[in-house]
Amino acid sequence: xxxxxxxxxxxxxxxxxxxxxxxxxxxxxxxxxxxxxxxxxxxxxxxxxxxxxxxxxxxxxxxxxxxxxxxxxxxxxxxxxxxxxxxxxxxxxxxxxxxxxxxxxxxxxxxxxxxxxxxxxxxxxxxxxxxxxxxxxxxxxxxxxxxxxxxxxxxxxxxxxxxxxxxxxxxxxxxxxxxxxxxxxxxxxxxxxxxxxxxxxxxxxxxxxxxxxxxxxxxxxxxxxxxxxxxxxxxxxxxxxxxxxxxxxxxxxxxxxxxxxxxxxxxxxxxxxx
Length: 274
Ligand SMILES: C[S@@+](CC[C@H](N)C(=O)[O-])C[C@H]1O[C@@H](n2cnc3c(N)ncnc32)[C@H](O)[C@@H]1O
Hints:
This protein is an alpha/beta fold and 274 residues long.
Protein backbone atom coordinates (compact mmCIF):
# COMPACT_ATOMS: atom_id res chain seq x y z
CA UNK A 1 0.00 0.00 0.00
CA UNK A 2 1.20 3.52 -0.71
CA UNK A 3 1.07 5.70 2.40
CA UNK A 4 3.07 8.76 1.34
CA UNK A 5 4.01 9.07 5.00
CA UNK A 6 7.56 10.32 4.43
CA UNK A 7 6.82 13.03 1.94
CA UNK A 8 3.21 14.22 2.05
CA UNK A 9 3.71 16.87 4.73
CA UNK A 10 6.63 18.33 2.78
CA UNK A 11 4.45 18.57 -0.34
CA UNK A 12 1.49 20.06 1.54
CA UNK A 13 3.78 22.70 3.06
CA UNK A 14 4.97 23.79 -0.40
CA UNK A 15 1.62 23.55 -2.19
CA UNK A 16 -1.76 25.27 -1.91
CA UNK A 17 -3.65 22.00 -2.44
CA UNK A 18 -5.25 21.86 1.03
CA UNK A 19 -6.63 25.40 0.71
CA UNK A 20 -7.97 24.87 -2.81
CA UNK A 21 -9.52 21.42 -2.22
CA UNK A 22 -11.11 22.47 1.09
CA UNK A 23 -12.48 25.62 -0.55
CA UNK A 24 -13.92 23.64 -3.47
CA UNK A 25 -15.52 20.98 -1.28
CA UNK A 26 -16.87 23.53 1.21
CA UNK A 27 -18.44 25.69 -1.48
CA UNK A 28 -19.62 23.08 -3.97
CA UNK A 29 -20.14 19.78 -2.18
CA UNK A 30 -21.04 20.43 1.46
CA UNK A 31 -24.19 22.44 0.54
CA UNK A 32 -25.38 19.37 -1.42
CA UNK A 33 -24.66 17.19 1.63
CA UNK A 34 -26.64 19.58 3.82
CA UNK A 35 -29.63 19.16 1.48
CA UNK A 36 -29.78 15.38 2.11
CA UNK A 37 -32.62 14.45 4.44
CA UNK A 38 -32.02 13.35 8.02
CA UNK A 39 -28.73 12.63 9.70
CA UNK A 40 -25.39 12.54 7.94
CA UNK A 41 -22.82 9.75 8.28
CA UNK A 42 -19.53 10.81 6.70
CA UNK A 43 -16.95 8.21 5.68
CA UNK A 44 -13.53 9.76 4.96
CA UNK A 45 -11.13 7.29 3.31
CA UNK A 46 -7.37 7.80 3.82
CA UNK A 47 -7.28 11.11 5.74
CA UNK A 48 -3.46 10.95 6.05
CA UNK A 49 -2.43 13.91 8.25
CA UNK A 50 -6.08 15.03 8.31
CA UNK A 51 -5.45 18.62 7.23
CA UNK A 52 -8.34 18.56 4.75
CA UNK A 53 -10.46 16.33 7.00
CA UNK A 54 -10.21 18.63 10.05
CA UNK A 55 -11.03 21.79 8.06
CA UNK A 56 -14.03 20.14 6.38
CA UNK A 57 -15.21 18.61 9.63
CA UNK A 58 -15.42 22.03 11.25
CA UNK A 59 -17.45 23.45 8.36
CA UNK A 60 -19.71 20.41 8.14
CA UNK A 61 -20.32 20.35 11.89
CA UNK A 62 -21.27 24.05 11.85
CA UNK A 63 -23.54 23.53 8.83
CA UNK A 64 -25.29 20.41 10.10
CA UNK A 65 -25.10 20.80 13.87
CA UNK A 66 -26.73 17.75 15.47
CA UNK A 67 -27.50 16.22 12.05
CA UNK A 68 -23.84 15.20 11.76
CA UNK A 69 -24.31 11.84 13.41
CA UNK A 70 -21.03 10.05 12.68
CA UNK A 71 -17.68 10.80 11.03
CA UNK A 72 -15.69 7.65 10.33
CA UNK A 73 -12.06 7.89 9.25
CA UNK A 74 -10.43 4.84 7.64
CA UNK A 75 -6.64 5.03 7.72
CA UNK A 76 -4.38 1.98 7.25
CA UNK A 77 -1.07 3.76 7.94
CA UNK A 78 0.04 3.61 11.63
CA UNK A 79 2.13 6.81 11.27
CA UNK A 80 -0.93 8.77 10.19
CA UNK A 81 -3.05 7.26 12.97
CA UNK A 82 -0.57 8.61 15.54
CA UNK A 83 -0.35 11.93 13.72
CA UNK A 84 -4.14 12.34 13.65
CA UNK A 85 -4.42 11.56 17.36
CA UNK A 86 -1.60 13.99 18.26
CA UNK A 87 -2.15 16.88 15.87
CA UNK A 88 -5.81 16.86 14.84
CA UNK A 89 -7.10 16.93 18.39
CA UNK A 90 -10.03 19.15 17.37
CA UNK A 91 -11.49 16.16 15.55
CA UNK A 92 -11.65 14.20 18.76
CA UNK A 93 -12.26 17.09 21.15
CA UNK A 94 -15.95 16.80 21.84
CA UNK A 95 -16.47 13.32 20.50
CA UNK A 96 -19.54 12.83 22.67
CA UNK A 97 -21.47 15.46 20.75
CA UNK A 98 -20.02 14.95 17.27
CA UNK A 99 -18.92 11.36 17.13
CA UNK A 100 -15.64 10.78 15.28
CA UNK A 101 -14.34 7.22 14.90
CA UNK A 102 -10.82 6.50 13.64
CA UNK A 103 -10.27 2.98 12.30
CA UNK A 104 -6.82 1.60 11.50
CA UNK A 105 -7.91 -0.29 8.40
CA UNK A 106 -7.75 -0.16 4.61
CA UNK A 107 -10.78 0.51 2.48
CA UNK A 108 -10.41 -2.98 0.93
CA UNK A 109 -10.70 -4.61 4.38
CA UNK A 110 -13.67 -2.42 5.25
CA UNK A 111 -15.41 -3.18 1.94
CA UNK A 112 -14.75 -6.94 2.18
CA UNK A 113 -16.23 -7.04 5.68
CA UNK A 114 -19.33 -5.20 4.51
CA UNK A 115 -19.70 -7.70 1.65
CA UNK A 116 -19.34 -10.72 3.98
CA UNK A 117 -21.80 -9.37 6.49
CA UNK A 118 -24.25 -8.29 3.78
CA UNK A 119 -24.54 -5.21 5.95
CA UNK A 120 -26.45 -2.14 4.88
CA UNK A 121 -23.85 0.48 5.38
CA UNK A 122 -25.05 3.73 6.84
CA UNK A 123 -22.73 6.29 5.21
CA UNK A 124 -24.44 8.85 3.02
CA UNK A 125 -21.39 11.01 2.34
CA UNK A 126 -18.08 9.44 1.29
CA UNK A 127 -14.84 11.20 0.39
CA UNK A 128 -11.59 10.03 -1.20
CA UNK A 129 -9.03 12.83 -1.40
CA UNK A 130 -5.98 11.61 -3.29
CA UNK A 131 -6.42 8.03 -2.22
CA UNK A 132 -7.30 6.11 -5.39
CA UNK A 133 -3.88 5.35 -6.85
CA UNK A 134 -3.69 1.54 -6.56
CA UNK A 135 -5.64 -1.23 -8.28
CA UNK A 136 -6.90 -2.94 -5.09
CA UNK A 137 -8.53 0.13 -3.55
CA UNK A 138 -9.85 1.23 -6.95
CA UNK A 139 -11.56 -2.16 -7.38
CA UNK A 140 -13.02 -2.05 -3.85
CA UNK A 141 -14.33 1.45 -4.43
CA UNK A 142 -16.04 0.36 -7.65
CA UNK A 143 -17.63 -2.59 -5.75
CA UNK A 144 -18.74 -0.34 -2.89
CA UNK A 145 -20.36 2.14 -5.27
CA UNK A 146 -22.07 -0.66 -7.21
CA UNK A 147 -23.58 -1.95 -3.98
CA UNK A 148 -24.73 1.54 -3.03
CA UNK A 149 -26.28 2.06 -6.47
CA UNK A 150 -28.13 -1.27 -6.20
CA UNK A 151 -29.48 -0.39 -2.75
CA UNK A 152 -30.88 2.94 -4.04
CA UNK A 153 -29.77 4.54 -0.80
CA UNK A 154 -28.90 8.23 -0.90
CA UNK A 155 -25.17 8.91 -1.09
CA UNK A 156 -22.93 11.73 -2.17
CA UNK A 157 -19.52 10.45 -3.26
CA UNK A 158 -16.71 12.93 -3.76
CA UNK A 159 -13.44 11.75 -5.29
CA UNK A 160 -10.51 14.12 -5.75
CA UNK A 161 -7.63 12.90 -7.90
CA UNK A 162 -4.74 14.28 -9.84
CA UNK A 163 -5.76 15.84 -13.16
CA UNK A 164 -4.11 14.65 -16.36
CA UNK A 165 -3.03 18.32 -16.81
CA UNK A 166 -0.91 18.10 -13.67
CA UNK A 167 2.87 18.28 -13.89
CA UNK A 168 2.91 15.36 -11.46
CA UNK A 169 0.84 13.32 -13.90
CA UNK A 170 3.32 14.11 -16.70
CA UNK A 171 6.33 13.36 -14.52
CA UNK A 172 4.85 10.03 -13.44
CA UNK A 173 4.25 9.00 -17.06
CA UNK A 174 7.88 9.89 -17.88
CA UNK A 175 9.15 7.94 -14.88
CA UNK A 176 7.01 5.00 -15.98
CA UNK A 177 8.61 5.14 -19.44
CA UNK A 178 11.99 4.81 -17.68
CA UNK A 179 10.74 1.59 -16.02
CA UNK A 180 9.63 2.93 -12.62
CA UNK A 181 6.48 1.56 -11.03
CA UNK A 182 4.20 4.55 -10.49
CA UNK A 183 0.79 5.06 -8.81
CA UNK A 184 -2.23 4.23 -11.01
CA UNK A 185 -3.63 7.05 -13.13
CA UNK A 186 -7.12 7.09 -11.60
CA UNK A 187 -8.33 10.00 -13.75
CA UNK A 188 -8.21 7.64 -16.73
CA UNK A 189 -10.52 5.09 -15.06
CA UNK A 190 -13.01 6.58 -12.66
CA UNK A 191 -15.36 8.82 -14.69
CA UNK A 192 -16.36 5.74 -16.68
CA UNK A 193 -17.67 3.86 -13.62
CA UNK A 194 -20.54 6.19 -13.03
CA UNK A 195 -21.80 6.20 -16.59
CA UNK A 196 -21.82 2.36 -16.41
CA UNK A 197 -23.83 2.58 -13.15
CA UNK A 198 -26.18 5.16 -14.66
CA UNK A 199 -25.37 7.57 -11.81
CA UNK A 200 -25.23 11.29 -12.62
CA UNK A 201 -21.77 12.66 -12.11
CA UNK A 202 -20.18 16.10 -12.17
CA UNK A 203 -16.53 16.53 -13.01
CA UNK A 204 -14.87 19.79 -11.99
CA UNK A 205 -11.31 20.93 -12.39
CA UNK A 206 -9.73 22.42 -9.30
CA UNK A 207 -7.29 24.76 -11.00
CA UNK A 208 -4.87 27.32 -9.57
CA UNK A 209 -3.01 24.65 -7.65
CA UNK A 210 0.75 25.02 -7.45
CA UNK A 211 3.68 23.49 -5.67
CA UNK A 212 6.55 25.92 -5.02
CA UNK A 213 10.12 25.01 -5.79
CA UNK A 214 12.15 27.01 -3.29
CA UNK A 215 15.56 28.11 -4.59
CA UNK A 216 18.27 26.61 -2.45
CA UNK A 217 15.86 24.13 -0.87
CA UNK A 218 16.37 20.88 -2.71
CA UNK A 219 13.42 19.00 -4.18
CA UNK A 220 15.79 16.02 -4.46
CA UNK A 221 15.07 14.89 -0.91
CA UNK A 222 11.34 14.45 -1.42
CA UNK A 223 9.98 14.83 -4.97
CA UNK A 224 10.95 11.44 -6.41
CA UNK A 225 9.69 9.66 -3.29
CA UNK A 226 6.46 11.64 -3.47
CA UNK A 227 5.87 10.90 -7.16
CA UNK A 228 6.30 7.19 -6.52
CA UNK A 229 4.17 7.24 -3.35
CA UNK A 230 7.05 5.40 -1.73
CA UNK A 231 8.74 4.99 1.53
CA UNK A 232 12.25 6.43 1.52
CA UNK A 233 13.51 2.87 2.13
CA UNK A 234 12.27 1.83 -1.33
CA UNK A 235 13.98 4.79 -2.93
CA UNK A 236 17.24 3.95 -1.19
CA UNK A 237 17.10 0.51 -2.81
CA UNK A 238 17.07 1.99 -6.35
CA UNK A 239 20.16 1.32 -8.44
CA UNK A 240 22.55 4.24 -8.89
CA UNK A 241 21.70 4.33 -12.62
CA UNK A 242 17.93 4.45 -12.03
CA UNK A 243 18.36 7.21 -9.43
CA UNK A 244 20.56 9.20 -11.83
CA UNK A 245 18.08 8.88 -14.69
CA UNK A 246 15.21 9.98 -12.46
CA UNK A 247 17.17 12.93 -11.07
CA UNK A 248 18.11 14.04 -14.57
CA UNK A 249 14.46 13.89 -15.66
CA UNK A 250 13.24 15.90 -12.65
CA UNK A 251 16.01 18.49 -12.94
CA UNK A 252 15.22 19.13 -16.63
CA UNK A 253 11.49 19.36 -15.99
CA UNK A 254 11.93 21.83 -13.14
CA UNK A 255 14.30 23.93 -15.23
CA UNK A 256 11.56 24.21 -17.88
CA UNK A 257 9.31 25.64 -15.17
CA UNK A 258 11.94 28.37 -14.51
CA UNK A 259 12.67 26.65 -11.16
CA UNK A 260 9.64 28.35 -9.62
CA UNK A 261 6.66 26.03 -9.33
CA UNK A 262 4.93 22.95 -10.60
CA UNK A 263 1.34 23.18 -11.79
CA UNK A 264 -0.69 20.51 -9.96
CA UNK A 265 -4.44 20.88 -10.67
CA UNK A 266 -6.91 18.23 -9.49
CA UNK A 267 -10.17 16.75 -10.70
CA UNK A 268 -13.16 16.48 -8.41
CA UNK A 269 -15.65 13.79 -9.38
CA UNK A 270 -18.94 14.06 -7.53
CA UNK A 271 -21.74 11.55 -7.87
CA UNK A 272 -25.20 11.76 -6.31
CA UNK A 273 -26.90 8.40 -5.66
CA UNK A 274 -30.50 7.64 -4.74
C1 LIG B 1 -1.69 10.86 -0.90
S1 LIG B 1 -2.26 10.51 0.72
C2 LIG B 1 -3.64 11.64 0.84
C3 LIG B 1 -3.97 11.99 2.26
C4 LIG B 1 -5.13 12.98 2.42
N1 LIG B 1 -6.38 12.41 1.97
C5 LIG B 1 -4.85 14.28 1.71
O1 LIG B 1 -5.46 14.53 0.65
O2 LIG B 1 -4.02 15.05 2.21
C6 LIG B 1 -3.02 8.94 0.57
C7 LIG B 1 -3.67 8.45 1.86
O3 LIG B 1 -4.42 7.27 1.59
C8 LIG B 1 -4.11 6.29 2.55
N2 LIG B 1 -4.33 4.99 1.91
C9 LIG B 1 -3.50 4.32 1.08
N3 LIG B 1 -4.03 3.15 0.72
C10 LIG B 1 -5.25 3.08 1.32
C11 LIG B 1 -6.27 2.08 1.35
N4 LIG B 1 -6.15 0.98 0.67
N5 LIG B 1 -7.37 2.33 2.09
C12 LIG B 1 -7.51 3.50 2.78
N6 LIG B 1 -6.57 4.45 2.80
C13 LIG B 1 -5.45 4.26 2.07
C14 LIG B 1 -2.67 6.56 2.90
O4 LIG B 1 -2.27 5.97 4.11
C15 LIG B 1 -2.68 8.09 2.95
O5 LIG B 1 -3.16 8.55 4.17
